[in-house]
Task: inverse folding
């Protein structure tokens, strides 16, 4: 008798658990979206200009470079690795495409630039995928090496495009299509494409599997090294796209223009909710994460704060976002570590 | 509801003779949504080995963690030598003389043996400077006492698993323990190492230490223990005197019913040779292994840990490169350089370690099931979700998978259901040769017999099955033929119907 | 000699941090290749040049042995330098330096407590802090560089004791203290336990949370100290000081053999890593090789060391082809 009661109690416990789990799942998967919307509402209320089309499209344009890189890095991170070389690679590819523009023409410059980017991605991919070295250290080494190569290439000089009027190269950074800036188009089109790759193709599924459990993936016939290799190619190609935007916008380049981007990009990816452990995350999350960074900056500027105020807010927001995520998975706010 | 505790007169005398050392009285512990321990009462006497049994999730590990101070019970009391105690953390438990020997070793590999033994309480001078001489002297004395053959200054990452376990035990002896809790201590020990461990347990007994022995293995429990307490669903379903009970009775208490006997073999269904190994060798792992596996047949591969069983399976599956020998599938020599090659040849491997090798734990059941044949569900590289769903629906039903939904991450399933997802993944590739490595490790008794029956059914449907196991009842129960391995070599081959346990034991220990 | 005994003897050699072999090779190479390399004052130069990253690396090593990481050190360098230069006029040199050091320790404390209490990975917590602390620097400095009006401050950066530059002595003394801390005290030994097996450490009664916080305070202290010594060398501070230092520091520490996963590493290894980078920079500079090449060589050495380490430490026969 008592046992039956206990059993009944247990099953109702379970039902409550399930509904609690549902709420938690929604918060876990959509929490960052909810926070994002709250953000937008708060900023809209405090500034008239904030919600205007012009302002919003400005933010999109501003985040397009970091965002485009972040898309590629997201795929690397879901695959269970890091890519710290993207900042240096952005410097290198931007310098390359700008410098070659006047030497071999825009088409050739773009082709060579992407080839160089993919070569760097391939080196990362070989070392992390096939040689199975730690990705943080490999890409840290590549960060240093590529920075060196860039400086050797330019001899320490900045580069620029001499005839800025007579080239269609301005298209990628300065033109508009259907009222929307081309950088925004590049960012969003790449986002949609990579989202489809991640969710609708077998390659995307393999990326999640390899990031979630590389050993079990190998035991299931997934060729881990190839998958990891490909994620680095994608990351490098995305960085190449960002270089296209940056080079075309500035029509010139400093040789350290991408310095520090690797960690800012990662901030956007993390803010969106992609776990550094690999195996989970998504492209839309990263888009939102990057937009949050952009809107914090924009909103605070509109409200009259100095531009570095965004950094302080970003500090708090990153930690809060990840904390809430971790806490909801743990089921309690604080750790039990003594 | 009443626990089974029939005390005979002689036992009551016993009770008086040996006062209880540790008494748990009505301990209750709840986790969000789950009552892990429900009014549990349990006692250990001086010099007694008290075995604790139960299926996974029955509450054994929670009970242990309450004892060791990792968890605090919300109701109930713990008495040690008649005194009510509250243990706030593991260190306090240790200081009071309650020590837990962990199943997952809790050593720091980069440190010396001595530092590990005195972890958290290194002998220091006033300034926090480590007194190395005292440390090594004291650690050395404890190691001598245990008859260990390694030095206190050795680094732990150079020790064998068994020796690491010795370090764990040595650590327990620092605090002159009164109660020692062993959690599945033999899981990774060889037979010779087990003997040493049992010896130590005997010695602790002689020193009047109370021992709680948690294990799945009936033979050990019946060999070592004085009493057995069985947990089920967080409650004590009975406490028995070992000398007066049987395995059947204990099993019944554990799962609430008796087990059916050996799953019936389908006679006469055995067909042509599906897989054949000829002189296969791989480094020091195994040498010159030859055997064949027929359609419709279950072959058991039995041997000690380290005998090369898993490594043979991994080589067949393309995860290791053999130095010599050949593998034939349906009579033709094949080159298997990687798992995709193996899958192409109709081979499937459900690996030894479900969580590390078998499943992507954070992924849904459905996505795990289709992982081994993504080409199969999409020729073009585009995922066909309908085809994936069809696979899930079919195998969830065939295997009686209990999962809330296809999108439930497998990490939330029980061990038995996780194993079904692994099996579903491989069955959906329609293999002709299925290798299952330790198919029921860490799985509760109920699901065990279910999986054994499934293996028989698969064989009856024409699949050639190789079952690797270190549990004798399992190989005896499920196989048609048994291959005995000793030190990387095939020692003998038996007909499962006629082999004796003694013959098997002799074959795998090189006698 | 069979391959397996070769392996074991190789592994035994590896007890000496392998970076020291590379360091010795570099020293030998530059002794022949660069004329002025072997001079005593060149070595003190190297020590001064490496002391900034070297000091941070001492703290970073301990944090990384714990299995954590601190990406905010570069920003802390700038904050401590700005505070200790900017507050001199109001407070005097020593109190201003104390404020600088205190700011680093306070931020380390904050990082540590957040890592401990929230359970968020240290990489993420300190990535946030890296961005935020740089914001604090700009907030305090209003984007201005500060110059020290008191010559005693800059004089300290140039001073020597018994012919050895003071900054080099500071670095070496702290290296010795940290080596002693990690090898001889229970706090140091516990660091390996916390990084190697956190649950075991906790079960053994080590106060893991406070232990980690203490180490974050340490790395904060060393980053601040590095910022202050750097500003004494320049007699000034800029808000952009220390950008990318976190990456160079991690490079040096990893070169020294400390594992990212925690549980292993040593101060001697880190010293070797820091000196190797210093010798490379200095030697190539003396050979009139443009500084850019150092970056390439450093990157290649970092990856090569990782590669060799993996090949030596892995047990070929037992490994699966994954």
Result:
């Amino acid at each position: 008798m008592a046992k039956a009661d206990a059993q009944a109690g247990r099953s109702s416990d379970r039902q409550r658990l399930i509904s609690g789990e549902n709420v938690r799942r929604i918060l876990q998967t959509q929490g960052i979206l909810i926070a994002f919307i709250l953000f937008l509402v708060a900023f809209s209320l405090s500034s008239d200009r904030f919600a205007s089309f012009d302002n919003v499209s400005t933010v999109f344009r501003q985040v397009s470079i970091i965002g485009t890189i972040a898309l590629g890095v997201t795929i690397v991170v879901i695959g269970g690795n890091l890519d710290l070389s993207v900042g240096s690679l952005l410097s290198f590819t931007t310098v390359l495409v700008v410098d070659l523009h006047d030497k071999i023409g825009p088409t050739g410059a773009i082709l060579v630039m992407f080839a160089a980017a993919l070569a760097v991605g391939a080196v990362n991919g070989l070392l992390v995928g096939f040689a199975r070295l730690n990705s943080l250290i490999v890409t840290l080494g590549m960060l240093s090496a590529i920075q060196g190569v860039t400086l050797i290439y330019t001899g320490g000089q900045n580069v620029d495009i001499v005839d800025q009027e007579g080239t269609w190269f301005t298209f990628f950074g300065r033109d508009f299509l259907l009222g929307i800036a081309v950088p925004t188009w590049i960012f969003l089109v790449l986002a949609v494409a990579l989202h489809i790759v991640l969710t609708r193709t077998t390659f995307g599924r393999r990326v999640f599997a390899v990031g979630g459990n590389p050993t079990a993936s190998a035991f299931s016939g997934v060729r881990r090294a190839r998958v990891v290799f490909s994620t680095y190619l994608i990351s490098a190609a995305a960085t190449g796209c960002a270089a296209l935007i940056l080079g075309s916008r500035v029509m010139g380049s400093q040789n350290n223009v991408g310095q520090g981007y690797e960690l800012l990009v990662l901030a956007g990816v993390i803010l969106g909710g992609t776990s550094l452990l690999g195996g989970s995350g998504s492209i839309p999350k990263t888009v939102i994460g990057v937009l949050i960074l952009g809107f914090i900056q924009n909103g605070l500027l509109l409200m009259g704060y100095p531009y570095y105020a965004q950094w302080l807010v970003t500090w708090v927001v990153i930690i809060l976002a990840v904390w809430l995520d971790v806490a909801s998975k743990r089921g309690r706010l604080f750790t039990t570590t003594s | 509801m009443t626990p089974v505790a029939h005390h005979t007169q002689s036992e009551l005398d016993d009770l008086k003779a040996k006062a209880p050392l540790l008494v748990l009285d009505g301990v209750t512990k709840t986790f969000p949504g789950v009552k892990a321990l429900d009014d549990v009462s349990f006692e250990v006497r001086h010099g007694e080995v008290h075995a604790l049994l139960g299926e996974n999730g029955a509450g054994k590990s929670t009970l242990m963690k309450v004892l060791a101070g990792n968890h605090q019970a919300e109701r109930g009391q713990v008495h040690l030598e008649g005194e009510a105690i509250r243990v706030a953390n593991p260190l306090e438990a240790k200081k009071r003389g309650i020590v837990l020997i962990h199943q997952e070793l809790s050593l720091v590999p980069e440190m010396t043996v001595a530092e590990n033994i005195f972890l958290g309480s290194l002998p220091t001078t006033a300034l926090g400077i480590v007194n190395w001489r005292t440390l090594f002297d004291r650690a050395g004395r404890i190691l001598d006492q245990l008859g260990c053959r390694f030095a206190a200054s050795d680094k732990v990452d150079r020790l064998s698993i068994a020796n690491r376990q010795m370090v764990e035990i040595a650590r327990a002896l620092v605090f002159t323990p009164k109660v020692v809790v062993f959690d599945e201590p033999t899981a990774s020990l060889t037979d010779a190492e087990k003997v040493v461990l049992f010896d130590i347990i005997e010695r602790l007994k002689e020193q009047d230490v109370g021992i709680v022995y948690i294990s799945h293995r009936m033979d050990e429990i019946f060999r070592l223990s004085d009493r057995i307490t069985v947990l089920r669903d967080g409650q004590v379903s009975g406490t028995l005197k070992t000398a007066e009970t049987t395995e059947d009775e204990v099993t019944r208490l554990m799962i609430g019913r008796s087990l059916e006997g050996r799953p019936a073999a389908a006679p006469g269904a055995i067909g042509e040779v599906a897989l054949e190994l000829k002189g296969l060798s791989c480094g020091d792992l195994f040498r010159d292994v030859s055997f064949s596996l027929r359609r419709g047949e279950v072959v058991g591969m039995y041997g000690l840990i380290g005998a090369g069983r898993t490594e043979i399976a991994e080589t067949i599956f393309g995860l290791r490169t053999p130095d010599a020998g050949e593998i034939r599938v349906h009579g033709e020599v094949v080159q298997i350089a990687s798992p995709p090659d193996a899958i192409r040849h109709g081979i499937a491997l459900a690996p030894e370690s479900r969580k590390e090798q078998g499943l992507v734990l954070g992924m849904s059941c459905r996505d795990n099931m289709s992982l081994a044949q993504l080409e199969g569900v999409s020729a073009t590289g585009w995922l066909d979700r309908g085809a994936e769903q069809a696979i899930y629906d079919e195998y969830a039903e065939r295997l009686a998978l209990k999962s809330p939904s296809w999108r439930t991450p497998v990490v939330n399933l029980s061990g038995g259901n996780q194993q079904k997802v692994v099996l579903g993944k491989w069955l959906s590739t329609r293999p002709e040769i299925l290798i299952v490595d330790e198919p029921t490790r860490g799985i509760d008794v109920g699901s065990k017999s279910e999986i054994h029956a499934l293996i028989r059914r698969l064989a009856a449907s024409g699949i050639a099955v190789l079952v690797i196991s270190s549990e004798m009842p399992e190989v005896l129960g499920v196989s048609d033929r048994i291959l005995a391995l000793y030190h990387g070599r095939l020692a003998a081959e038996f007909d499962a119907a006629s082999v004796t346990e003694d013959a098997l034991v002799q074959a795998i220990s090189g006698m | 000699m069979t391959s397996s005994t070769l392996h074991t003897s190789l592994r035994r050699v590896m007890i000496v941090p392998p970076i020291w072999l590379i360091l010795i090779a570099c020293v030998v190479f530059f002794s022949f290749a660069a004329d002025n390399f072997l001079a005593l004052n060149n070595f003190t130069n190297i020590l001064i040049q490496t002391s900034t990253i070297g000091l941070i690396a001492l703290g970073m090593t301990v944090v990384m042995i714990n299995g954590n990481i601190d990406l905010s050190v570069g920003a802390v360098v700038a904050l401590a330098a700005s505070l200790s230069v900017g507050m001199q006029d109001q407070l005097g040199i020593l109190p201003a330096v104390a404020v600088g050091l205190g700011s680093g320790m306070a931020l380390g404390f904050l990082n540590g407590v957040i890592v401990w209490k929230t359970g968020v990975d240290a990489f993420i917590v300190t990535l946030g802090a890296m961005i935020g602390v740089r914001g604090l620097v700009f907030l305090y400095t209003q984007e201005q560089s500060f110059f020290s009006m008191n010559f005693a401050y800059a004089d300290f950066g140039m001073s020597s004791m018994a012919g050895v530059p003071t900054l080099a002595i500071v670095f070496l003394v702290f290296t010795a203290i940290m080596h002693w801390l990690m090898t001889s005290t229970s706090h140091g030994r516990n660091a390996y336990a916390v990084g190697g097996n956190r649950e075991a450490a906790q079960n053994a009664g080590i106060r893991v949370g406070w232990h980690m916080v203490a180490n974050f305070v340490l790395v904060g202290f060393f980053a601040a100290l590095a910022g202050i010594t750097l500003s004494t060398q320049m007699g000034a501070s800029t808000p952009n000081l220390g950008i990318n230092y976190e990456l160079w520091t991690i490079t040096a520490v990893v070169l020294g053999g400390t594992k990212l996963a925690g549980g292993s590493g040593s101060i001697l290894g880190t010293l070797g890593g820091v000196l190797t980078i210093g010798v490379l920079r200095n030697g190539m500079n003396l050979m009139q090789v443009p500084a850019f090449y150092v970056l390439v060589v450093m990157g290649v050495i970092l990856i090569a060391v990782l590669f060799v380490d993996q090949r030596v430490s892995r047990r070929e026969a037992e490994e699966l082809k994954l």
Remarks:
- The first helix of chain A runs from residue 2 to 46.
- The longest strand of chain A covers residues 159-160.
- Confidence is low (pLDDT under 50) at residues 1-18 of chain A.
